[in-house]
Each structure stands twice: as structure tokens, then as C-alpha cells.
Specification:
The protein is of the alpha/beta class. The protein folds into 4 domains: about 80 residues, Chorismate mutase (Chorismate Mutase Domain, subunit A, Up-down Bundle), CATH 1.20.59; about 80 residues, Periplasmic binding protein-like II (D-Maltodextrin-Binding Protein, domain 2, 3-Layer(aba) Sandwich); about 70 residues, Periplasmic binding protein-like II (D-Maltodextrin-Binding Protein, domain 2); about 80 residues, ACT domain (Alpha-Beta Plaits, 2-Layer Sandwich). The protein is about 40% helix and about 25% strand. It contains 12 helices and 15 strands. Bound molecules: prephenic acid. Prephenic acid binds next to helix 1, helix 2 and helix 3. Its main location: cytoplasm. InterPro entries: ACT-like_dom_sf, ACT_dom, Chor_mutase/pphenate_deHydtase, Chorismate_II_sf, CM_dom_sf, CM_II_prokaryot, G/b/e-P-prot_chorismate_mutase, Preph_deHydtase.
Length: about 350
Amino acid sequence: MTKTLAELRAAIDAVDRELLAALNHRAALANEVGDLKRAEGTPVFRPEREAAVINGLQNANPGPLKENNVANIWREIMSACRALEAPQRVAFLGPAGTFSEQAAVQFFGSSIERVPCISIDEVFRATAAGTAQFGVVPVENSTEGVVARSLDLFLNTPLHIVGETSLLVRHNLLRQANSLKDIEAVLAHPQALAQCQGWLNAHLPDVERRAVSSNAEGARLASTNPAWAGIASDRAATEFGLHIAAHAIQDDAFNRTRFAVVCLPQTLNAPEASGKDCVSLIVSVPNRPGAVHDILVPLKKHGVSMTRFESRPARSGQWEYYFYIDLQGHPSQPQVTAALEDLRGLCAFYKVLGTYPLGE
Ligand SMILES: O=C(O)C(=O)C[C@]1(C(=O)O)C=C[C@@H](O)C=C1
């Protein structure tokens, strides 16, 4: 016999009470872990452990919950447990409502102390100074390529990468009126203006495009002037009380941005192997024929896959370059260590930016 709505809801209420008791039991255990870590002086945030918890539960999941539901639910549970151990302060390019904030919450869950910063430089500075324990910075966009400022700052920073996450970036045109009429200027971060240029050329060809420090700042400014529009997320529309005058105006429907999570090595040393890991490094090679080819040889020899290879000018005026390389694997695997050692021997400059679990 099928159950009535009242009966089903009563059953859900009973399950929720069991969940609440189980979650509080879990939180109490995390509190004990926190006491242990404080006594040992070891880091609270352990991304490889969190990745292993989520992978384990996804593998054990009988359904009907989907794998990504399991990941989202446990990310929030672990965020809350972690905050009980010690609240983690996370810096990102602000103000509230930016994609960087969204990336921070996607990675750490919502139980964090948010430290919005006025620029990417400031995120690095705040994290290096200890104002925040972690920083979240954009590194690459699927339409526009690398975020040059972040890559350049990696070169000299004492921070290292301990994680990554990527977001589907959907840009909307936000303004006080729900129409495209009488717009004098569109204000957004230069990356967003570039990612929407096809739409802007087609729909607002004669309107001024003004670069501002972040999309959320553009949205904030649009809320102060009816003739201005911003390009930003749905969240920014809610945050600043604006209409979405046009939805999803980015030229590439699958526009994604990848973010790196950075911290001082004393906050968190290189995470242990999670099974799906990545090593990021910056190298430069002597300016001679075949030098770039040579750096690929150790990778082939030791069977290590390269998932990323970017170049940035070394600013020496000599047409020299830094290469940003991502390798798959973890230094605990002998073939990865052997490839890194061989590579180091070939490079004029060699810096490991971090070893971390692969993100979503
Ligand atoms: O296992 C730990 O080290 C914990 O602190 C517990 C826990 C969790 O809630 O499962 C919380 C924070 C860490 O980042 C990893 C996992």
C-alpha cells in the first residue's frame, strides 16, 4: 500500500533526527581530532583526507543520491567540522559575490571566515602576511587563457599551491532596469569584458566598456547609476538588488575558470597523496636550440603525463621565458620523483609551486 504524504514526511522527520544525532557525533569526533592537532601543532585542514573521505563515500554510494550530491553534502559537513576545530580564514578577490568567492566556498565549504581583497596582489599579500590562512586565486580561463597576474605573482611568492577547483562561469548583464535600453557604460573586470565581447559587439556595439577591479565592483557601481550595467554572477545580482537584463552572455557556453588554493608552507605542507594528484612547477631553460624539447624528455622517459604547459616572458629583454608545467602524480611515486630530479638538472630556474589533489 502506498504511503500518504503525512506518513512519508513523518518518516523523513525520523531520518532527519537520526542524521542530526549522527552529524553531532561526527562533529564531536572532529573536535577531539582538533584537540589532538592542537597538541601536536599539526594543520587543521587536510585536503587529501577530505578528498579521500569524499572518494570513499562516492564509491560506496548505493544511490539514489548522485555522486556530485554526495560530494557537495560531505564538503559542507567537513567544512562545519573543520570550523569547529579552528575557523579557517580564506582570502579571495572581493567584494562579496565574485566568482573567486564562489570558488572559495566550492573548495572549503561555506563554514569559513571570508577575507575579501581588492586585487589578486592583495590576496597573495594577505595570505603571506597571515591575515588569511589560505588564498584563492584565478589561474586560467577556458576562453581567455591564463590569468597573467596570478602566474607572475607565483614566481616570487613564499606561498605554495595546496589545492585547485574550477567553476563554470556564467556571466549576466546586470542593471537597475530590466532592459538593454539607455545603457551608457558596461563596467566589469577586463577578463569578463573579453569573455563577453561577441555578445557586447552584437547587442551593445556603441556602449563604452569600462574595466574595473572586479565584476562584483562593476555590479556595485551599476547599483549606483541607472545608466551603468555590470557583468557578473547571479549571486551578485541578488547581492546588489539588480535585474538580470540578459542571461549567460559569455561567448563560450562552457566557459570555466580554474582557481588555485595557496598558503604558506607552515600553514599546510604539501598534502599527502590522494590517488589523483598534480605537481605544479615553474622552470626556465637556457636560451639555446632544443632546450624546450629537452625538458619533455624526462617526462617521457619516466612515463609521467603533463597536463599543462604555459609560457610567460621572463622580462629580461632577452626573449627568455618561464614555463608553467603541471604533471600528473605525486612525489611519493618514484617515477614522479625521478622525472622531477632529471628535469631539475636541465633547468636554469626550477621552482615547485605545489603538490595537491586534482580538483573538480
Ligand atoms: O581527519 C581529520 O584530520 C579531521 O580534522 C577531520 C576532518 C573531517 O571532518 O572529516 C575535518 C578537517 C580536515 O580537513 C579533514 C577531515
